[in-house]
């Protein structure tokens, strides 16, 4: 059942993979919801469609607010934040649900809340449950009523049916039934809970703020609230945190070798975040260095496709010795959606957002550095703009290997047929885009850039790189059920 | 858990009992949701806070829209109604939930929807489930997750847990667990369902429109869509209606003697509705006639307190021979709520809504006819306005007996202590209001006016009159649990 | 130049003449703007499209707020009213401008403000300047820049060009150039000013509130603020009021015999207002009495067309001895406009607003009393509803003579061709409406009802009755210029 | 008089000089208003508070729309743009008025429109009229009524009072009375008009699009509509453009040596615009080169203060050989204003917008390159963030000379006392900011970077650089009247 609320998402941002969620939680600080709002603002790049916060206060109980739109437009108002009192709160920003075909509904906006016999709990997650459809079917047959189309609601229902006596144990019970790639923040009346799936595909970090604690998808959100970064929650770890007793670590899952999402390094995470003690910015810059080594070309200018290509372009320029310059300028005033746009606006596409710095480009052999090629639609338009401006040559250099497979772990990817690299060779893509050269970093090069000096271990890859390799560390069983063709074993 | 959305209700309308809901459904007509919107507009007096519609279309499945505010401000727009296709739809308008302390949340707005293994169903109800708290507790213990604070959600969960194979039978199962006073409209993918509780406390009528059928709280909503009034759904009856096979009647409950809400005649229903083959307007006029017989007084003018006192005033004037006149004029442009009103607005009270027709009132002995006295706050202010305008005498005549007991069957009543008649005798009330005389119609007089020639049968009253008599036909078990003191048996 | 802001007005209210404005001003009370807001709320029936308030405070200067929509939805908010400090304020509600073809723009919303070399002044008016087009043309030729399409802006420009030293004298200068029917409230930094045109066509009354003074279109707005009614501003009088020195009366115009608008008695004014020491309600009731005497008919029920026909119906019933009853019930929840309504809503027309009390009407010979017939479109629909409900006969009785001429004095009337009475005889109208009889009160009967015992003086009529008689007391020169055909002199 | 509409501007953007307006016009293309909307979107950096468009269509006349907020949120909607038909349109984006103390009112949003006896004209301007107060006083004394607090309205009134027969000649008349620095786009029913003041302080360029023409503040807005850049309108030139006859050039002013605003090169213009055949980006990069030459320092990292410091930082890094890196990351989701923000939000300041890339900064000697220092408030906060992140040293390098004087030519500058450089020496500033070194580019260095090989000509400077030098090319007479102290002649 759908409930109409939101205009369709912006048509010009659709040529990127999209991280679907950011999560944040805090315990042991006054006005916890305010900190959550700030944290979510710092995580806004992980989901711009909607956000929600749940807080708990001993007197006022659980309170929540869910809103479409940016955190800064909703969760900054004195009047709203007053309704979210307490020293314990969690929140969520989202892009859209894997499950929903069309529009998001406010009831799909997390955190979800459930009232159990021993009290209430709220839960928010980042990632995807790959057996959600099967679980949902089973739960409905046993009499559960789902309020949303979000697969994370399964966790709440599994918890409701657990025979355990307290909520953390019920959550353990529930998580053992769940497959996929997910990080979770949850809360009871007194506890902040964090979980990462056994492979640790999606990120989750722990921070310390005064006498309290914070959980966040990325470290950049710890910075904004002035929290100190403590460590990553480990793959397969569940932490139960109270203001007075601190962090209790539990291992609900069978141990496995970790497979962190390598695309967090490439694109999803903010460059000022730290993953595994490495600056994301520095990793991206290093990708540019590797790319320059692997795919040199004679040119006059290294130019980033703003803003995500910038660090790799800086690295490429530095390594190649070719001058770095801003050949494409981004309009700062682009937002996300238009309501009933004029025909002309609809046809403008990327030109509403980007303009070529004609005087700089003119007559030059230009290396354009972008983070990835998904459908290739934006790349074509950018190439046209660059050529219109009088560039002598256009060379695309891509800071990730060809994206040939969809992600089923909480990232919004087009269907496989729409991925340029799924149907074309590198050379066909070059021709399709109409550029003088097109080169991607190798998978090994990417692994080197993220710190694996000897590259990818083909027997047991250190990261989840399914979008490049087609090797899915967790079987996407719901999708296979729906007919998705896995890569044939070699 | 509360989700802040709405300003508190208007402070000047609070001196009335409030019907909490209106329900409407239609099957077998193109664009069924449009008909539901019109029906709900005609039922708006039964609930002004919010409304919702669910429709079903074979291709597009179930769709819903829920909005705060008037039907006419939401469900008239082409753009919204397009999202609700199909030939089957139900809808609901609501005032507020018995259960909620403060503000309504959009997720409390009916109809509710549940996905069962054999398909979805939507349900809306008018009335109250008196064992809802106990049921809810039991269901939560068994693992149900509630999405709202509304007690009607119990029905959906009971249905989800039923072992029956089809939805109507699951609903029968569910309704047998439920106590209270309620009318229900529900729908599956193909069926429109209507139910009245065994005592038939709340109304529900059946209408025919072209080849289709309609269910409505009142006949006035059949008129607006051009439907023909067929009959009342009987107390304890469940009708299952399909476009092709028509109306199937089922009796899920043990038969009982009916106890229709007598206050529907006095105030809740619209005067142009028909209840039990009697015009509500005519009944109210007849109440005025009885009132004039029972409580005559010498005076110069019979004046209604607008608008609900008007028909009884017309009857009183006719029977007494005293001229009828509009001594109080209502401002047509009053709405319901103010957001952050100025101090002055807050203090204006009833003067924002009513003004005295000074030239008519001056020097006259005035009989004011009102439908009821609840807290008495408005009555006092009206008396002051009338005296300020120079009336020689003020006589209140009330078209219902003293309201001394709260209603637990879907009507918003103040706590017992706030009811003027619960703590004062008629004479104390007269003094409290500061009027020359105050008289209420007798309970027998009221029964005569609604057509019971020999008055109320004290052994087995023909109506539910608990608000006057304290005799509750269904034990309000949740409230008793919370400490409500029933009237001692005599 | 048009500036799009508002949806077109509601299509179902268009079968009435519309008063275009209400004006209110107050001096010498704290938070004067709050009093103006309340006064405008009481005058909302005179204009529902938009409202504006200007206040002055010695420290904060002039401040204004203009808003589309009802007074109660805008000028009740603490936050807005705080921006309008001071002890002197004026305000205005409006329906629409005579001049504008389509939509109103916020800059057309009065009061208008002008900065002169000796200080600022704000002005609001009710009525129409009949030589506005000519004045405007002249002023533009001399270099004035108009900010609105409203003809009252002429007054500000004439004042700006006056050679007088103070604002009241500049206003006198300006008003002497202006022809038409108008009442004005204006303010300088210290003075509240009121003016009525020489014929006194439009109303304006004076009230006393504490140490301050109020000016209002009607007395009902004095009641709401608790002000005492002092007297009418006289035709051709200008009052200049200061908090300390009180009311100074000036006569800027050549004296003429007054010609107050008789339609204020019939329809425009609120029934609880007093005009010339007569209650409007009582006058309307008396119109019903005269109507019963002039146009008797055998019938079973006298039924008002709500709400404007009610007092006359009460009078008719009383005089004729036929029972009075509410055969038509109004939906309280109708507003004014729909944005992009569905086809079905568009076709509903009057049924969205009115329903027949079928049980009362059935089988009866019904006398329907309405205030006027303009286009006749609503009358036809009401007749159909009444017959559908099974009435045996339908007799229309109209509380005003046939409306055969447009008003050019601040009232929104259709073009002459659209007025039913302009093109049909009474008998043709009866046939067109399809009723058993149709009768209007005579012009003499109407004059008797408003207190002129010997009826209308044909040599020198006591009222402006141009809409009935075609005798215009002020030549509508702009309209004649545009081709309007005056009635031939007899 | 003020009319409340808008929350106060965002408190964290206030440490920049603000260009106050962008203007755009187009003639000879279908749906001209759509092109204007796109152009204004590209000029949004010149004014984010509000925007307006006026179009003319032979049948539908002049139409306008004015809205608060971004162009993209208003002027992209099909429904709004349909109301602006025609092949001729002009538009304006604005930041705020020099004159207004507090909030902007919708009536202050340009373009302004005036109806003259020979037809209407609309006008929008960028810049400031330095004798506006005196002109306004004179015009009011002669009977003009001002509708706004904007000084550009003077031009319309002067035109209205001109004795010339056609609008372009009236505009010439008006402009000769006006002093200051301004560029104007205007339109009659058939003509698009552009004017630059005699010194050419503010920019205006001409473009060709198909058979039509465009005028724009900057070339970047020609790019977005696909127009070809033709040339700059020359200082003191007035162009009158019709679709069929093309561009007619007029010289209404006495010729003077041009004094273009040098700050357009430093900060106001978009880097992808071209001024005087030079890319703004390239100029800024060159400023960085000059700065590196003038103010070398040993360090490990050159880091821009995003985004305006980026090109100069690239130049500085290139020239100095010190690696370039993004040490500060901007949150893409910052907007401009908060309504009733929480205390915490209010205190966050720049941290809501910027975060330090800790891993990159840690232990490094960092050169921060920013475009200017105004109040110094943001610079201090950035320095703190950098030191908190563990930088070893912080060296500020500023791509403009010390800003010691306010601009009176259409730029929003703090009062002189608030400018850090007005009250402190460079060394005092360094101490105040608490950095290891602080150096500004020299005025000569800046002149060299913009292409004046031999630097600034002190006898007759090539640019307006009053904000640095205190030498005002046009006397700011209104401000002098108000007490502003000009720099003593040396």
TrEMBL record, chains A, B, C, D:
Q: What is written in the cofactor note of this entry?
A: Binds 1 Mg(2+) ion per subunit. Binds 1 [4Fe-4S] cluster per subunit.
InterPro entries attached here?
A: GATase_2_dom (IPR017932), Ntn_hydrolases_N (IPR029055), PRTase-like (IPR029057), PRTase_dom (IPR000836), PurF (IPR005854), PurF_N (IPR035584)
Which of this chain's residues are annotated to bind Mg(2+)?
308, 370-371
Which parts of the sequence belong to the Glutamine amidotransferase type-2 domain? Answer: 21-244
What UniProt keywords apply to this chain's record, in alphabetical order? 4Fe-4S, Glutamine amidotransferase, Glycosyltransferase, Iron, Iron-sulfur, Magnesium, Metal-binding, Purine biosynthesis, Transferase
Domain of life of the organism encoding this protein: Bacteria
Pathway field: Purine metabolism; IMP biosynthesis via de novo pathway; N(1)-(5-phospho-D-ribosyl)glycinamide from 5-phospho-alpha-D-ribose 1-diphosphate: step 1/2
What catalytic activity does the UniProt entry give for this protein?
A: 5-phospho-beta-D-ribosylamine + L-glutamate + diphosphate = 5-phospho-alpha-D-ribose 1-diphosphate + L-glutamine + H2O
* EC numbers for this chain: 2.4.2.14
The record ties this protein, via SUPFAM superfamilies, to:
N-terminal nucleophile aminohydrolases (Ntn hydrolases) (SSF56235), PRTase-like (SSF53271)
- Which class of enzymes does this protein belong to? transferase
Where are the catalytic residues?
A: 21
Q: Where does [4Fe-4S] cluster bind?
A: 261, 407, 464, 467
Listed cofactors: Mg(2+); [4Fe-4S] cluster
Record family assignment:
In the C-terminal section; belongs to the purine/pyrimidine phosphoribosyltransferase family.
Described by its record, this protein's role is as follows: Catalyzes the formation of phosphoribosylamine from phosphoribosylpyrophosphate (PRPP) and glutamine.
UniProt protein name: Amidophosphoribosyltransferase
Q: Which organism is it from?
A: Marivita lacus
Q: Which gene encodes it?
A: purF
């Amino acid at each position: 059942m759908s409930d109409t609320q939101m205009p369709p998402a912006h048509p010009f941002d659709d040529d990127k993979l999209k991280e679907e969620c950011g999560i944040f939680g805090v315990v042991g600080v006054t006005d916890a919801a305010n900190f959550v709002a700030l944290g979510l603002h710092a995580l806004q790049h992980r989901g711009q469609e909607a956000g929600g916060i749940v807080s708990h206060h001993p007197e006022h109980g659980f309170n929540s607010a869910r809103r479409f739109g940016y955190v800064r437009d909703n969760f900054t108002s004195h009047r709203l934040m007053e309704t979210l009192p307490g020293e314990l709160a969690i929140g969520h920003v989202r892009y859209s649900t894997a499950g929903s075909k069309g529009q998001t509904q406010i009831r799909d906006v997390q955190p979800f809340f459930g009232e159990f016999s021993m009290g209430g709990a709220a839960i928010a997650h980042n990632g995807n449950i790959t057996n959600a459809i099967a679980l949902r079917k089973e739960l409905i047959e046993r009499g559960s009523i789902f309020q949303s189309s979000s697969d994370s609601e399964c966790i709440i229902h599994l918890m409701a049916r657990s025979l355990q006596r307290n909520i953390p144990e019920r959550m353990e019970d529930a998580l053992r039934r769940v497959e996929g790639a997910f990080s979770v923040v949850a809360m009871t009346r007194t506890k902040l809970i964090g979980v990462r799936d056994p492979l640790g595909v999606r990120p989750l970090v722990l921070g310390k703020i005064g006498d309290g604690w914070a959980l966040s998808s990325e470290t950049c959100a710890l910075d904004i609230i002035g929290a100190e970064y403590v460590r990553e929650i480990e793959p397969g770890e569940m932490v139960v945190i109270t203001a007075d007793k601190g962090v209790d670590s539990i291992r609900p899952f069978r141990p496995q070798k970790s497979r962190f999402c390598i695309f967090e390094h490439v694109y999803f995470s903010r460059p000022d975040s730290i993953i595994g003690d490495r600056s994301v910015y520095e990793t991206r810059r290093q990708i540019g260095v590797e790319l320059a080594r692997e795919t040199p070309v004679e040119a006059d200018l290294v130019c980033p496709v703003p803003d995500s290509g910038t660090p790799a372009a800086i690295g490429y320029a530095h390594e190649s010795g070719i001058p770095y310059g801003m050949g494409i300028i981004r309009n700062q005033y682009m937002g996300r959606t238009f309501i009933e746009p004029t025909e002309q606006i609809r046809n403008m596409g990327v030109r509403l957002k980007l303009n070529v710095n004609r005087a700089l480009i003119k007559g030059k052999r230009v290396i354009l550095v972008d983070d990835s090629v998904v459908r290739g639609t934006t790349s074509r338009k950018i190439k046209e703009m660059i050529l219109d401006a009088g560039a002598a040559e256009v060379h695309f250099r891509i800071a990730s290997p060809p994206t040939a497979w969809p992600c089923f772990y909480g990232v919004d990817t087009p269907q496989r047929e729409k991925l340029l690299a799924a149907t074309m060779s590198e050379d066909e893509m070059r021709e399709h885009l109409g550029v003088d050269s097109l080169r991607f970093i190798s998978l090994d090069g990417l692994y080197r850039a993220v710190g694996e000096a000897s590259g990818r271990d083909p027997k047991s890859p250190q990261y989840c790189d399914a979008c490049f390799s087609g090797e899915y560390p967790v079987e996407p069983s719901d999708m296979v059920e729906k007919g998705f063709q896995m890569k044939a074993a070699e």
